[in-house]
Amino acid sequence: MDDPGPAEGTSGPRRWESHGRQPRSQATQDALLDSAEALFASAGIDATAVTDVALGAKRSIGSLYHHFQNKETLVLAVVDRVLRDLEAVIETPLKPSHWHGLGIPDIVRNYVQTALAIERSRPGYKRILVEVGLHDAQTLSAYKRFRRRLDGGLTQLLLDRRENIGHPDPDTAARFAVDQLSAMLWARLDRVMTPTQLEDCDDEAFTAEAIASVNAYLRLRE
Amino acid sequence: MDDPGPAEGTSGPRRWESHGRQPRSQATQDALLDSAEALFASAGIDATAVTDVALGAKRSIGSLYHHFQNKETLVLAVVDRVLRDLEAVIETPLKPSHWHGLGIPDIVRNYVQTALAIERSRPGYKRILVEVGLHDAQTLSAYKRFRRRLDGGLTQLLLDRRENIGHPDPDTAARFAVDQLSAMLWARLDRVMTPTQLEDCDDEAFTAEAIASVNAYLRLRE
DNA sequence: ATTATCTATAGATCTATAGATAATGC
DNA sequence: ATTATCTATAGATCTATAGATAATGC
Question: How many Å apart are A36 CA and D5 C1'?
């Protein structure tokens, strides 16, 4: 009854790996992950039964358990895929060379637009990360690492232009401005639970006010 | 096996009422609600078994079901109590007469401090509201009504002082500023899932920067 | 007599496995 | 021969109830 096992997977960088040796194996894993991510995002993880995941992927429950050791492994695989995709998306825009010759308003505008676009293309991913992160320490730290990379990278881009910042304490101001921008975006993206008074204003007007707010707080110099 | 019942409770304003006719009945209900709220806030609702709620309240599972029709009723009772308490707390500070002769910075400072104090005294209430609100439409609308009352009330307090607002569109600016303030606070209060770059700065410094940001964006005139 | 509480357990739901069947690739 | 998939179901967990026992208040 025990499961001594080789205790693999806890030492490697990633907690889940594909072991398929036939092409259809990958297709099934993708279908299961797609189904799981969609159901987790809309109904929540606890409320989603693994049989429903298999059903949504047009596979059997036995096939699901052939690919994933248990429900937790499936959940972590979904989280890994989401975080890996997000990290790939933010990598290029965080490079200083990508913004050579451009100013803080350009950077802020792109940040806001990119965040809005990600949510549209992958609705509800945040819900999954939160639900898992509240229980699993490894997911929580991976998620925080992603947020630190994103917020820290943006802060650095602003500080690279500190000669344009009139605020008496540019370092603190840059961090506060980025925190505020992130918070605003996450509130706007969470259309379900966070009511905002600017729900009916369109993305363009929202972006314009966000830029105006950052500029005013930083006391931006042209 | 059916439960025709008098179909009561769906028409009244509140979905759950105490039916106890002995003093100890109220004490048991309070103990069960306290236990439930604490467990729901720390572990989540789905992850909390009703037997654990009874255990935490030092009551039996049979006693729990004597007071609450089912788990959902218990959850809604907890939510009702949280929202009722929150509504009572914000009522006085939202009255215009409460701020006679005082300016926007005073109002913002009090708003930030009150929000921080509420979270400290009732840790994790937000998690309960979110988890229930994602599934229950009635809780979602009750929660949104609370947020609208809070954010809308604060916006009105700012607009009562529109002669001090230099922003070309004071109505939009007031709503944006309040949205931004709320978002910042909720991010700071959610110490678990929302990493911020100002985590290590204390409440006083955070409050000062929040006021500075609002003032700069609104182009506040003294 | 009524209300509240308890213990014990039925019933429902979900996760995970066993073992048979089908498809793939050397 | 190996890998992938399927059906059927065992086992675990949680919600909810039945029925007995204890406490309260007229």
Answer: 19
Single-letter residue type at B203: D
Question: With 60 as the cut, is the pLDDT of residue B7 above it?
Answer: no
Are the beta carbons of B90 and B40 closer than 8 angstroms? no
For the segment B19-29, the average pLDDT, to the nearest whole number, is 84
Q: What is the pLDDT, as a whole number, of residue A15?
A: 58
d(CA B35, CA B51): 11
Q: Are B109 and B103 in contact (CB under 8 A)?
A: no
For chain A, which ranges sit under pLDDT 70?
1-18
Rounded CA gap, B188 and B191, in Å?
Answer: 6
The alpha-carbon gap from A24 to the nearest alpha carbon of chain B, in Å, equals 35
Tokens of A214: 């950052």
Of B159, B153, B186, which is closest to residue B174 (Cα–Cα)?
A: B159
Per DSSP, the three-state class of B53 is: helix
Contact B108, B214 (CB under 8 A): yes
CB < 7 A from strand C, the residues are A 22-24, 48-51, 61-62, 65, 69-72; B 19-22, 24-25, 27-28, 58-63, 66-67
Per-residue burial over B162-172, b if 16 or more Cβ lie within 10 Å, else e, is: eebbebeebee
Work out how many CB contacts closer than 8 A connect A with B: 120
Type of residue at B159:
L
Shortest distance between the Cα of B101 and any Cα of chain A, in A, equals 26
d(CA A196, CA B144): 9
- Separation of alpha carbons A136 and A77, rounded Å: 13
- Do the chains contact at B219 and A216, CB–CB below 8 Å? yes
Grouping H, G, I as helix, E, B as strand and the rest as coil, residue B23 is: helix
CA distance B77 to B68: 9
